[in-house]
Amino acid sequence: MIGLWVGAFTMAYVFGMIDQRLKDAVENEVSHFQVHHPRFEDDNEARFVVPRGAELLSVIKKDPRMKAAGARVITYGMIGSAQTSTGGKFVGMDPIAEDALTGLKGKLTQGTYFQDDSKNKVIISERLAQKLKVKLRSKIVLTFQDTTGNIVAGAFRIIALYKTYNSGYDDTHVFLRSSDLWDLLGTAGHYQEIAALLQDPEQLESMLTELSGTYPKAKFESWKELAPELGLMIDSFDQYMIIFIIIILLALSFGIVNTMLMAVLERVREIGMLMAIGMNRWRVFSLIALETLYLVLIASPLGLLLAYLTINHLGEV
Fold it and tell me: Which ranges of the chain would DSSP assign to H, the alpha helix?
């Protein structure tokens, strides 16, 4: 009973941890799938925009299978303050769409989300603010290349700070409006990335097959391709858990065998007397086997019930 209780609880804990990591990565970072220009991820150059991006975004948003979708203007460059500078990823986005995709507004620890159409406002992480030695309302300068290869720069005021579970993500991502990046990049109306969340993740493969057939010049990637380490982690954990289950069942089997062996050794006289008055060996064997079966049939449901109650309770609190 205790063995099944502990084994089932441990497996639930591990699977819950994996599911939570996957959920966090999908809903906060990579989404269920993303669309890029086939060459964008090779050099991360802003000139590689999604082919027919505006049309594709409209089609995706209208699809009833979609939970949320949004387009991003992305470039990489330097973030400078009065004290120091560092590299970063600049994400130009629609504030409403981005919040639906990643819940950015809910991650804010200071300041307010984009509330008006005022220009040159940014949101950075607490970690990045500490690294740059800036605070709320401070100004930073974003420097990067436009689509023609020229160096451009813009001064932006920090309106909010955010914090996520991923320190690597926090160290690099800077959020601003798409229009502010368009003005500097010279790519008005074009996007480097489209991201989407589905209502039912099981429809992901069929959705990508359908869209890639309609838009062959765009590159569609699922979360497994965008974050291969997640897929590897899930597959490896599945294998680990099979081994873990086998070990638990073997240990429980040896425990039952040991228990019944002791029960038989302590009842040698009783069994001898039963055989002396006519009980044959098959009946003696059936007696021991039946007791073992009862032991398992009583302990297993109790162990699984305890695991169920424990998992439900800890899953809530």
Answer: 2-25, 40-43, 53-62, 95-102, 126-132, 167-172, 178-185, 204-214, 223-226, 228-265, 268-276, 281-316
End-to-end CA distance of the chain: 24
Phi, psi of 259 (to 5 degrees): -60, -45
- Residue 174 sits at φ, ψ, to 5 deg, of -120, 130
- Report pLDDT digits (tens) over 212-270: 999 999 999 998 888 888 778 777 887 888 888 888 888 888 888 888 888 888 888 98
Tokens, residue 31: 């989404």
| The pair of three-digit structure tokens given for residue 141, joined into one six-digit string | 């300068």
Q: pTM score, two decimals?
A: 0.74
Q: Which residues neighbour 60 within 8 Å (Cβ) at sequence distance 6 or greater?
A: 66, 69, 194, 196, 211
Rounded (10°) angle between helices 268-276 and 281-316: 140
How far apart are the C-alpha atoms of 226 and 37, rounded to whole Å?
14
> pLDDT of 140-192, one tens digit each?
999 999 888 889 999 999 999 999 888 888 999 999 999 999 989 888 889 99
C-alpha pair distances (Å), 42 with each of 36, 39, 220: 11, 5, 15
Find tokens 């169920």 and name the residue.
308
